[in-house]
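[SOLVED] Predicted holo structure with copper (II) ion

Edit: marking solved, answer below. Original request kept for reference. I posted the sequence and ligand SMILES and asked for the 3D complex as structure tokens.
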Amino acid sequence: MPPSIDSNEHQPREEKSTKKKSLFSTRPEMGTGHGMLFAVMGLVVLHGWSLFPALATLHYYNFVLKEANFTKLCSTKSMLTVNGSFPGPEIRVHKGDTAFVTVHNNGTYGVTIHWHGVKQPRNPWSDGPENVTQCPIQPGRSFTQKIIFSDEEGTLWWHAHSDWSRATVHGPIIILPKPGTAYPYAKPDLEQTLVLGEWYKGDVMEIITTALSTGADPVLSDGYTINGQPGDLYNCSSNATIFRMLVEYGKTYLLRTINAVMNEEMFFGIANHTLTVVGMDGAYLKPITVEYVMITPGQTMDILVKANRPRSHYYIEASPFADTNAPNDTSSTTAIFQYRGSYTPPATPFLPSLPSIANKSAAGNFTNLLRSLASKDHPVNVPLNITKRVFMAVSVNQDPCPATAPCGGPNNNSLTASMNNISFASPSIDILQAYYGQLTKKNAYLKRVYNTTFPDKPPYMFNFTGDVGNNTLYPSHGTDVKMIKYGAAVEIIWQGTNIGAAENHPMHLHGYNFYVVGMGDGNFDKKTSPSTYNLVDPPLVNTIGIPKKGWATIRFFANNPGVWFMHCHLERHASWGMATVLIVENGRTEDERILPPPGGMPACSKP
Ligand SMILES: [Cu+2]
């Protein structure tokens, strides 16, 4: 059953003392206010276990994957949801807790769920990317995932990780400070989760299947959404298609903003109100006060906004940032920041002036402001002496068209994508199982599932961001992973290229947050670029946009053994193979080794 939309006015959630919730996690409501009825969860105290309040609290959730009908932009479709809601249900924990989510698949195809930005120390088994750490949960089957929270604090999200199912299967993860500790900023009065989404009138799984078979770009989306509502600026907009956030004059609100959009980075702002960004990807930032933010798919931002303007209606707007020749949905979505009280609202709410769609410098100017909080309670730990360095060229490429069929991409070729000129080929069974089989010598024959040959640099160096010749156009295809020694001080330099349609790529790594120590335009220069690095307070994130025809350098300590997917979070690029896998090997001691597989891992259909 779709959520009721009879009332689309939403009272943000009040910030309560966190202490009360340390033992019981009851989650009957959700920040997005859809009045959801999904199964609750919250059974925390097992018999006799309530004597251990110092231990991390356990939370239990049931996620039922099922089809539900939704009507948006005057078009109705059946789509896959969790518990019938869009966006899906919220997970709300304290730092260091553990959640068990039992996913029941009542849908029609196999799906996996990923807990985006949750590091899952030593536990890749519950990370979720299809055929990387598990095989899909088939229709009629269930799988219980153990989500181990460690140092994350702030906002993250979960989403399906099978083809394009994440378009409709996603929801927030809220991680509060530990009981007895506080936010490193003045406590907001209330909080509101805002999930940015992308709406396709068609079936998203059909859209990507068709695109991959023709080699053409996937059809564009029909609009964007905020908390499931497209807003006022579309055909078919009405009073029932807009999300209204009711605010009280003088109060401060924490906006937990999640970019769940499929294929575009987004500018976001609220008319006449300044935003103060205090956190990102589950880590704190030095507060940044701005008129707009640029948030990539995969990123989350904690933003403070004070309701201190004349009582009225103000648009909250999200519009795409896409500086590229590739086609994009250019529309924008709105919600209303609506003051309580009696006044005559304007006929049309005030609109923020967000940067235009191709405004690369506006996007870069915002990203350059990001700094870790780097305080005593939230220190940084940036690797300084690098022991493993990898240079990765990131490209949108083409494949020659097979003689048997015409292809719909440029030059009558097929579109594809690569890292270091290798287009990632999804294996038939998951890499984690194959790796663990060798590690334990139980299923060593599975080693043919992947190669450990992902190179430390591209096959040849060229003027990546200049006039690229045709000789760089065609990648190879393979399931190549990068092996990393436990404890290595890793530096990865991502170099965007001008092959195909250059654009900003939001690169995401599972199992880690990483420090973004530098970024710049043009080719990375190993002599001059490192002198620009910020090794003092670089932002700690799980996703960062590599500037168009530019580079970004990240650093992290390889202290989480496992099989970790790395990919562009523009979904069409990931589908084309802009991805690889890092396998961080076991260390010497028991607590430096991956955990054994839990029972009930979904079976793989092919050996
Ligand atoms: Cu990309």
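OP edit: The pocket of copper (II) ion is lined by residues 505, 568, 570, 573, 578 (CB under 6 Å). Thanks to everyone who chimed in.
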